[in-house]
Design a protein that fits this description.
The protein is about 10% helix and about 40% strand. By secondary structure, it is mostly beta strands. The strands form two sheets. It has a five-stranded antiparallel sheet with strand order 5-4-3-2-9, with no helix packed on it. Strands 1-6-7-8 form a four-stranded antiparallel sheet, with no helix packed on it. A hairpin with a 5-residue loop joins β7 and β8. About 20% of the residues are buried.
Length: about 150
């Protein structure tokens, strides 16, 4: 009987396909005609990284033409959270900024400020005061904010 159960369970497992789940959450701000966002700040409470799957969380700014997203990305691909800033996805030649590993229970502050024709991104780990600052030459008007997870 044990052999049958083991074989049956193994056969069922072989029929199971890869499961995929994607969740997107948006928060949109619409500015009055002629107005634009000049700063975007907040804090991210770092969640525990689940063992299964690949996780990305990010607050970001996106132009109305949807040509990309200027974002602070919490990236869980490596099995540890890493956070950094950059532009995705229309111009792969634009550099990605610096960042640091962070862990569940920590808080990371982000500040994105427009200064002339560039955005300055500052990430601060609240527990240690570690700071990473990067500048991105993105002169376009970034008017829609997003927060996404997948």
């Amino acid at each position: 009987m044990y052999y049958f159960h083991t074989f049956f369970l193994a056969a069922l497992a072989s029929l199971a396909g890869q499961a995929t789940a994607v969740s997107w959450y948006f928060l949109r701000y619409y500015t009055p005609s002629g107005a634009k966002l000049t700063s975007f700040t907040g804090e991210i409470a770092i969640p525990s990284l689940p063992a299964a799957g690949v996780y990305y969380l990010w607050p970001g700014l996106q132009p109305t033409d949807s040509s990309g997203v200027y974002q602070n990305v919490l990236d869980g691909r490596s099995g540890t959270w890493w956070i950094g800033s950059g532009w995705c996805c229309s111009n792969p030649s634009l550099p990605w900024g610096g960042g640091f590993n962070t862990y569940g229970g920590e808080t990371v502050a982000f500040s994105n400020v427009l200064n002339g024709n560039q955005w300055t991104s500052t990430l601060t780990r609240r527990s240690s005061g570690e700071v990473v600052t990067d500048n991105f030459a993105l002169a376009m008007d970034l008017v829609t904010t997003e927060s996404k997870s997948l």
